[in-house]
Design goal:
Strand content: 15-25%
Radius of gyration: 24 Å
Structural class: alpha/beta
Distance between the termini: 48 Å
Helix content: 40-55%
CATH topology of the largest domain: Rossmann fold
Length: about 400
C-alpha cells in the first residue's frame, strides 16, 4: 500500500488494529516450555504464531492493511510480491473480505505455497528468478492494472497489524523480561517495539537475523537502508536484502539489540522444536531459539524470555532434510570414509567394530573404482547414527584401535 514517509506508527494505530483484528485472527497461546527452559537455562515461553490459519503471524498485518482499503481500491484489488507467508495472509483474508488479490512469486517459489495461494483464491503470477525481479513485475502490474501494492513489511498498516502480537504477550506473560523477535525487513520488530517500549520499557527487545542476510543491523548502523548481499539461509522468510525505510526509522530510537545466527544453529533449533515441542517450525520461526542456543545471549540465563515461533510453513521434504542437518550438527549422525582390506571379511570386520561401538549403520557405499592405486584396499563411505559428539570420538578411537584407517569424516 503506497504511503507517505513516516517515522513512527503511533500506539493508537496498533490499538485500533487490535480492535480491527478481534475475532478474525487467532489469539495464539504463549506457554512455558519446561524442556526448552532446561535446555537453554532461561525460563522460556513460546508464542505459537505458527498456529494461525495460514501458518504465520504475517496475516495480522495483511488483514489490517486490507481492512483499511478505501472501497474503490478494495474493488480493484491488491497486489504483492512474496514467495511465502505475506502472500498466504493476503490471499486468505482477501477472500474473506471479497478483495481480489494478485501475488507475484519468483519461478522458484515452493510449489506448496503457490498451490495454497491459489486454493485461497489469489491470482498467482510466476515471474523472474529472484525476488527483486518478482517485485519489479508486481510494481509494473500494479501500475498497469490499477492495483494497490501491499508491501510485506514497510507499510504502516502492516506494521501496526504485526504489533498486535505485543499486546497478547504482555497479557499472557506480564512479567516477561525479554522477547526475541525474528527480523527480516523489520515489520514485526517495528510493530512490537512500538507497543513494548510504550507499555513496558524495561522489557528487553532482541532482534535476531540470519548471518547470511543481516540487512537490518546494517541499516541500523548506517541509519538508512543498506543493500546487503544475501546468501542461502534456512530462515528463508528472513532473507531480505534491504530493510524497510519505515521500519528502520521506527526501531532506531527504541530499545533494541540485534544478534546474528548461523545455519547450524537454525537447523539445530528446528530439530529441538520438533523433538521437544512436537511442532514443525520453519527456519525463520526457529531463529529466536537459535539465538539462545548459539551462546550469544548468555545474559538471559534464569530470566523470563518469550520466543516468537513466527511460522510453520515449510515443505515436508525440506523439513526432513533440515532435521538431518540438525542431527549432524548435534553429533547424532556421523559420516566418515575408511580404507579397508578388499578381501573377504574386510567389510564384516568394519561392521563388527561399529556394532561393538554402539553405532547403528544407516548407509554404506563400497567404492573400488576410485580407491586409489593400492588394489588391496577399498574406500568405504559410512553413515551411522550416534548418541552425541562424545560417542563419535569413541567410534574414532575404536576404529583406530582395530586397525581401520579413517580417511575422512563429516561429523
Amino acid at each position: 500500500m503506497k504511503t507517505q514517509a513516516t517515522t513512527t506508527v503511533p500506539l493508537s494505530a496498533v490499538v485500533a488494529a487490535r480492535t480491527r483484528l478481534n475475532g478474525v485472527i487467532v489469539r495464539t497461546s504463549c506457554l512455558e516450555s519446561p524442556a526448552l527452559s532446561e535446555l537453554t537455562g532461561a525460563q522460556v515461553f513460546c508464542k505459537q504464531e505458527h498456529l494461525q490459519r495460514t501458518g504465520s503471524f504475517k496475516e495480522r498485518g495483511a488483514r489490517n492493511a486490507l481492512a483499511q482499503l478505501p472501497s474503490e481500491q478494495a474493488r480493484s484489488g491488491v497486489i504483492a510480491a512474496s514467495a511465502g507467508n505475506h502472500a498466504l495472509g493476503l490471499a486468505w483474508h482477501g477472500r474473506s473480505l471479497n478483495i481480489p488479490v494478485t501475488v507475484v512469486m519468483p519461478r522458484f517459489a515452493p510449489l506448496v505455497k503457490v498451490a495454497r495461494c491459489r486454493q485461497f483464491g489469489a491470482t498467482v503470477v510466476l515471474h523472474g528468478d529472484t525476488f527483486d525481479e518478482a517485485r519489479a513485475e508486481a510494481s509494473r502490474l500494479a501500475e498497469e492494472r490499477k492495483l494497490t501494492y501491499v508491501h510485506p513489511f514497510d507499510d504502516p498498516h502492516v506494521i501496526a497489524g504485526q504489533g498486535t502480537l505485543a499486546f497478547e504477550i504482555l497479557e499472557q506473560v506480564p512479567d516477561a523480561e525479554a522477547v526475541i523477535v525474528p527480523v527480516g525487513g523489520g515489520g514485526l520488530l517495528a510493530g512490537m517495539s512500538t507497543v513494548l517500549q510504550a507499555l513496558k520499557p524495561d522489557l528487553q527487545i532482541i532482534g535476531v537475523e540470519p548471518a547470511n542476510a543481516a540487512c537490518f543491523a546494517a541499516g541500523l548502523a548506517a541509519e538508512a537502508p543498506v543493500r546487503v548481499a544475501t546468501r542461502y539461509t534456512l530462515a528463508d522468510g528472513l532473507a531480505v536484502a534491504e530493510a524497510g525505510r519505515h521500519t528502520l526509522a521506527i526501531v532506531r530510537p527504541l530499545a533494541h539489540r540485534m544478534v546474528e545466527v548461523g545455519e547450524e544453529d537454525i537447523a539445530l533449533s528446528m530439530l529441538r522444536l520438533a523433538e521437544l515441542e512436537k511442532c514443525i517450525i520453519e527456519g525463520a520461526g526457529a531463529a529466536g531459539l537459535a539465538a539462545l542456543l548459539s551462546g550469544s545471549l548468555k545474559d538471559l540465563a534464569g530470566r523470563r524470555v518469550v520466543l516468537l515461533l513466527t511460522g510453520g510453513n515449510i515443505d515436508p521434504l525440506a523439513h526432513s532434510r533440515v532435521i538431518e542437518r540438525g542431527l549432524a550438527a548435534d553429533g547424532r549422525i556421523y559420516r566418515f570414509d575408511v580404507l579397508i582390506s578388499d578381501r573377504p571379511g574386510g567389510l564384516a570386520h568394519l561392521s563388527s567394530v561399529l556394532a561393538a561401538a554402539g553405532a547403528n549403520v544407516t548407509e554404506i557405499v563400497h567404492n573400488r573404482t576410485f580407491a586409489g592405486p593400492d588394489l588391496s584396499r577399498v574406500h568405504v563411505l559410512c553413515t551411522v547414527e550416534t548418541r552425541d559428539r562424545a560417542h563419535i570420538a569413541e567410534i574414532q578411537q575404536s576404529l583406530s584401535k582395530n586397525g581401520v584407517e579413517l580417511a575422512g569424516a563429516q561429523p
